Predict the 3D structure of the following.
Amino acid sequence: MRTVDEGTGMSSSSLPSPSGATLPPLERQSFRDGMAKLAAAVNIITSIGGNGRCGFTASAVCSVTDSPPTLLVCVNKNSQSHAVITTSQVLCVNTMAGPHEEISMAFAGGVKDMNARFAVGEWTTLVTGAPVLKEATVAFDCRVTQVAEVGTHDVVFCEVLAIHEGGSKDGLVYFGRKFHRLG
Amino acid sequence: MRTVDEGTGMSSSSLPSPSGATLPPLERQSFRDGMAKLAAAVNIITSIGGNGRCGFTASAVCSVTDSPPTLLVCVNKNSQSHAVITTSQVLCVNTMAGPHEEISMAFAGGVKDMNARFAVGEWTTLVTGAPVLKEATVAFDCRVTQVAEVGTHDVVFCEVLAIHEGGSKDGLVYFGRKFHRLG
């Protein structure tokens, strides 16, 4: 789901193997193939900046702690949304419902123009001004509290300020390089 | 899935609302109810220390970057496994397959004794010595490279050194406070 570009920083491992030989680094493709088997919810991460709304599809989102309510989102440092989020310090995690394959593909890059991505679906706002998809299974309106840099990505920690539930009881999951509906 | 205890650190938000009033912090229960709608793969995180093997069930795992191959795991600072992982600096993420509800419940606290948890399933090791469940959908053998402290939890970033695929094509997901099988 997430496109991952060339990395920077962080040296490769050279942990000795039991025989004492140095291990070669894991192949990038092996890692991707393995990660394809880790099921994940499909989310659209949105933000708002001086040039308007932006958003991208992401599966690398998870809960961190409820004290205070905090989640994290992994954001490619080369992405357009990264610049907006690090400036505005706000974002919304919109968790997709079963029928949201099309909008998920649009925000995954199927539609290039940021404004055009928002032509599909009905959008509102809660507290921060970041776009909230009305029919999302759940939407978490957040402010950024902390960032950890890891290679090509920033891991953005966010305090959840408000939640919207769209009324859908099902979810959309990406697993085995396919969408799956959960009900 | 993950139990989250009392928090420390990190102040509550007091972002002004559009009317200028200060927003109350989000209720912990509202956050938990919202997070129950974010589907996630079920994993058993294992490690090895001076007192032997340990492990716990976690849904807060995600891919970070493939340069170098890196994932993250959120670990409660009060947990027994936290002490082992921060000392040994190794862990294995074992991603559960469809039939793994019982073992997932054992490692979620259904079985208290660490050694007894490993009585179910066949276990092996790859590079680091952390336990690898042979029949996991996929297992990521890792060394810790970086830790970010966020309230009650440490977010542990890990370089993936080796991968095992157990031959299963299905996955186990937690959503709406229930297990779901994906195939």
Remarks:
- The CA atoms of residues 36 and 178 of chain A lie 9 Å apart.
